[in-house]
Amino acid sequence: MLKIEQLTGGYSQTDIIKDVSFSVSRGEMFGILGPNGSGKSTLLKMVSGILAPYSGSISIKGKPIKSYSAKELARIIAVLPQHSSEAFSYSVKETVSLGRYAHQEGWFHTWSGKDEEIVWQVMEQTGVAMFADSLLHELSGGERQRVSLAQALAQEPEILLLDEPTNHLDLSYQKDLLDNLKGWTRNTGLTVISIFHDLNLAGLYCDRLLLLDRGRIKSMDSPNEVLREEQIAQVYQTSIQKQPHPKVPAPQMVLLPETEGNQTEEKLIDESLLQVSDEYIMLRSPQHLRTMSSGVVGSGIGWHRNFINRHVGKDYDCSDHRSEMADYIKKLGFEPGETVGMMTAVFLEDASFTFLKEEGFSILVVVTAGVGNAVDASRSKVHSSELVPGTINIWMFVNGELTEEAFIQGIMTATEAKAKALHELMVRDPLTGTIATGTSTDSILIAATQHGSKMDYGGTVTPLGKLIGRGVYDCTLEAVGKSRKRVKR
Ligand SMILES: Nc1ncnc2c1ncn2[C@@H]1O[C@H](COP(=O)(O)OP(=O)(O)OP(=O)(O)O)[C@@H](O)[C@H]1O
């Protein structure tokens, strides 16, 4: 659809765009990225024919751009410029109607039924039909942006060039606009070439991205390839981290703020922060901790500062345990979003905890363990899937920085140490009679301050794994021992 070859150009004989070549296919959504001043708008001006290049060529549908008249070009390409705050006293409908100019034939430019139909259709699509008679200056910045888009669409272009289209739009209109653009590329074959400042939106919606660095192509590929941490950090000169999107296979780039200097003094997470009552064991951390857990509340990966292991009776109704637990946390005066909450039928005075230190880092392990509901994971097929309280809950608080890999390996190490303790104590699965590996509702938490020594790994023979293995094994032995004594009494 569009082919750019060795394009060089700029202003007053200064090269802004240098030797740029790429092509865009019909129906493609193509994003242009780059820091301020890297030449994105200049490139778009050349592609739209507003600015003549010094050298190189641009061809559209196989013909040089120079061979098209202005009117012919306007029937193929529509441009949505960077938003301007100027607003003339035209009505919305009049403004959108200007987009039909390229399609009007002859000297008298008669307004046809088709023109009218298309203008209303694009006003509906962009959500501005309700303002049809309003004057532009009466609209908000985002509403005016949508009017400009409607005007561009009224041209019925085959290629839509957009300079920062989501500028001034609130979240829901950003999503609507990009969903619509994506839909049009798929359904009507519209080709979209758009400048983005928001790398995450570009990564979510574009088929391919072009990254400009001081007027040259730094990278042009799929979003996942272009949005590489080191590359973006280098081109944008900032600290950035790449993460997977939680729902779709698209990269998300997050800024890493400079927090040095305004950090409050780090407080050690140790047993002095534990509060144990008949109702719950609680740890309130002075700072947010990076967590990976399977709690009833706060499960998955996150940042939390309150940790509650709550005692519930054996007859606790588990049918809506998540919302019941969230209500309970609120009643205690905590925000469920900041809290990891677990439940246990074990008497909390039977909890076991230990604080272990190594060169440069330390961990606090807390275990509550009831094994009446023990299961051998290798034979769990014979059990029903019903959830019953009676469980081993393991908390591990690490004073140190963990990689994601270390979080996962720490959980593996703890699970192995727990299984070993159950083996040592000959805890049996009551249904199979074989040695149990856990219970059917065990929960685990690993939480790290993310300050201090960095631990890349948490496997069994790593410094972190050694402390976890020992701490979880010892605490599980002790907690199961205490709870068994109580059962005997
Ligand atoms: N009309 C102009 N005359 C002279 N120089 C210009 C003109 N427009 C832009 N420039 C210069 O060209 C360079 C690239 O500008 P351009 O607007 O293409 O960058 P951009 O990547 O779109 O930046 P931004 O992200 O800030 O919108 C800048 O150094 C700018 O000062």
TrEMBL record:
Q: Which Pfam families match?
A: ABC_tran, CbiZ
Q: Which GO terms describe its molecular function?
A: ATP binding; ATP hydrolysis activity
What is the designated name of this protein? Iron ABC transporter ATPase
Query: Where do the ABC transporter domain residues begin and end?
Result: 2-239
The yes or no answer to whether the keyword ATP-binding is present is: yes
Q: Which SUPFAM superfamilies does UniProt cross-reference here?
A: P-loop containing nucleoside triphosphate hydrolases (SSF52540)
* Entry-linked InterPro entries: AAA+_ATPase (IPR003593), ABC_transporter-like_ATP-bd (IPR003439), ABC_transporter-like_CS (IPR017871), AdoCbi_amidolase (IPR002808), P-loop_NTPase (IPR027417)
What PANTHER family does the annotation carry? HEMIN IMPORT ATP-BINDING PROTEIN HMUV
List the CDD domains hit by this protein, alphabetically: ABC_Iron-Siderophores_B12_Hemin (cd03214)
Per the record, the coiled-coil ranges are none
Highest taxon, organism lineage: Bacteria
UniProt keywords, alphabetically: ATP-binding, Nucleotide-binding, Translocase, Transport
